Please model this.
Amino acid sequence: MHEALKLILSLSLSGTILILLLLLFRPLYRKRLSKRWQYYIWLVVIWRLLLPITPEASLTGNLFLEAEQILSGTAISALLPQDNGQPPVETIPEAEAVTGQGNMVQDSIGSNDPDTKTSAGDTRQFTAARPDTANAADTKDIHGSFVPVGTLLFALWLIVALLLLMRKVTIYQSFRKYVEAGCSPLEDLELLESFGRILEDNRIRGSIDLCTNHLVSSPMLIGLFRPRIILPVSHLSERDFYYTALHELTHYRRRDMLYKWLVQLALCLHWFNPFVYLMKNEINRLCELSCDERVIKTLSETARKSYGDTLLNAVGAGGSYKDTLASVTLHESKELLKGRLDAIMHYQKLSKAVRSATLFITGLLIGSAIVLGAYAAPGSGSVQDPVTPDGQPSSSSASPGSELSSDTARTAGQQPDAGAITDREASAKAYVDYDMRYEDGIYYFHIDGATREDEPLSNVTDGYRKLVFVWKDRYSTFGTFRDKDMPHLVRNMESQCRTLLENGQITQEDMDLYLQIAGDLQDSWLSSTAEQSDNVYTFKMQGGYYQKPYIVDLGYTNQTQPAMLQVCHSRTITLSDRTAVPLYYDAASEQQLASDESAMTAVTSVIEQMLAQENAGDMKVFILVNLEYVGDEPPSSLARRYYEEETLSYFSAVFRVLDRQTRFQYLDRMLADDNISFFACCIGELPDDGEQKEAVERYILKAYEEDNISFFSVLSGMLEEDSKRQWLERCEKDDNIRYAIVLGDQNIYDNLDAFDALDSLDVLDNLDALDALDALDALDSLDALDSLDALEKLDPSPTLGTMDLRRATRTEVPEQVQTALDVCEGGKWYVIEADNLQYIYYNGLPGTYAYESEIYAGIESGSDRITIRIADIRTDSPLLRRPRSDGNYVLLAFSYAPANPDTAYELAIEYDHIPVTYERSQAR
Amino acid sequence: MQQISDYELELMKAIWNNNGSALYAEIVSTLSGKGMNWTKNTIITLLSRLIDKGLLKAGKIGHRNRYTAIVSAEEYQSSQTENFLSKVYEGNARDLVATLIQKDLLSSSDYDDLKKHWQSITHGTLSE
Model:
């Protein structure tokens, strides 16, 4: 067999063993070791896969030698009849020569080009080894009959590898070009400055541009020489922007891009090995998880929660139609985000014991990689290395095993809590209790028992904030800060503190304390929504509860310092288990509560029901949003009334207590009425005991059959992984791309670069590829937007006409058009008119294409201008593959009816952003 | 000529005021003199955008960057004025001057100067 081929196969084999090791032991280390380690440990595997470096004696190497010996023995004897009837005795030295010679090969292991050298070297060596025989020619013959097969395989491997590599690069480039072309630079100075400060805070060198491109489905970092971050929407909240930027910058700083390209390289070279694809998926997953880990390492618990919120928001942003629906409850894509959010919530720093175990396991893995080694044609000096049947290089594998057991014994005995103190907690030991009061822009911190009397008289200009630290005998003031300075509060405070410290006005201890408190304030600032005004809290709502004779609507929050709440009545509710919770409500509710005892009972009982849920940890304070008296009216008539009045929160309260049959009847009705907000809310309310699953399956099938994409999209978010996959297959079979895109639009991983579009050999990854491409089919999703009434947001100009633009195939169009198409030359654009429809045609694209359109109402010029943009998207996504018989061409059926029949219109066509000229013709 | 944002215009002004060419440090000090203390990333990003739009070019002096304006202040002003005139006044300069006068944007002494200048041009050509 060809030398280099052996090398690759052996590398692949060693790599596979390592991959299997890591994957098999994953359940053990998944939760215990840091994600960062889990992410970078795969580098060992990649090294093993890519670098042809190995000790002379190695597991895989010896394996190959042994196999070769057997093979060459049998192969040679099989070829015997062909080689002029040589006496068998001549061939045995041949076998020896294979194992014993080739020191030139040994030397060339370190070089990158083993193929030509080794084979040439081998033949030379072989013939040189036997100068005394007249059979040199025959030896060549025998060896020569090997070469074709081996070289053929090697050539095949090389060609596929090179092709893959080239194609990946091309796809990446075209993706990058397409995205960059549609980018508009961010002009908002506030955001740019905020971003610049984040860069400075994190000491990042190099400059990064910020742009928006609404076609992109999630934020991404792109570009090698001029890196830029592309956002799908420009109006992110301050908090979302901060966390998104932090996440992307972490990718930038760690150069995750390089790592991904390394993985792709390994993929190209080992394209035949399925385990390498498993590795790639694992690495991608860990890339995001470890990036999250890095970001939240410096965040406090509240900040971590808001980071999770940002992730959740990101699922919805960028053109997805799922989260514009029902406001009260909506089933979130639990399964998908669960992994990431779990990791965020359960993040904790590792104990010392775990850290040393980590180090040890890493060493073990590296050792295995070396020991596994690769195929190396044996050196002349190493003939002694026994190719024994068991092929075990002596001691190296035995001792790690025993070391491992003794080490774990040692670590198990260690105190587990020793290293568990984080930096923050350590300084928390120096923590002092403080009280906070907020008034008119000034935060008063009462330290060490100080009270309001100790406060200085202070005020600040409208719109600005100050921090006043009040001790019993003194006070320190810091400020002034604007709202947009608050996310960087600690940094601003630091410089002011330093000045005071240098002037001897405060001590180092004071400064640490002030910065600590400022940090808390900064975190809680970041965790509140951007629109929060000074005196209002953010409460979460769950919708109404029907508790006869009332419907109770309660909100809750996890903030335990409601000192900021004003103009609210409050009382403390004692529950049946003797615990107490505060309840806030307005004057109108005060009346109701005072006049009717059963109201209070109803509210208390609802609070208890809510606290019995699994997210009860968040519910520290309750607010009574609404209390509606319904008396004795039966739920069925209430439901009917609320449905007709379209009051969703009351309806959903009553929905919960209806019987199963009635519930399904209402769901049917909602589907028939196209009442998606009610549907989405209520289907999320169904009990988890299988009723919900049954409902989802039943209605998603109905939605699909009735071509109701908005209902389909709501329900698709509630599917389980394998159901989703089944649906995806079905959509592919039906060639139903719009629905496939809806299903696939679940990718929460940001498109670090175009890698998601590169992985054409893995079907599941095409969900990612679709993400990169989904928004390109903007016109197809206009139907979905219709159902969601989101067209109101698009604010169509009343003077625009209606346009119909569809993709078509040559076999679909009417006969006269087909005849017209046949006479068209390739490489030219045509617009062919037939029966009020116009067909745009271009023959000669290398691949598939996407299109979008734009109408510009010509108020002055009296004619509307329609621009159709076509882009060439090459991808091997099986979901977008068109049948070969279609050939590669553009064919769009188009019609336009202007609002005012007198208005003319012009049609402009752009291809890859360049306007093209086209020829008009009439089909007879 | 491509349109530039207000902040990019500030950068261009800083460079024009420095004889059409400035080092990065000089730009920063001019801006902070006007109270615009932008972060390094913002300034570099805006400068790169200006280079892409063809208004600036960058060169290295040692290891520092020097930015030179390709379009001068006068060229920019005249192109923007032409745009403005055609867009808002549909090429009718008389209406523009009328607005300037009505809104007191043109002082009476400016107006006299203008009149004198106009007469000297027109009478100059007539007398030839």
Notes: The mean pLDDT of chain A is 71.
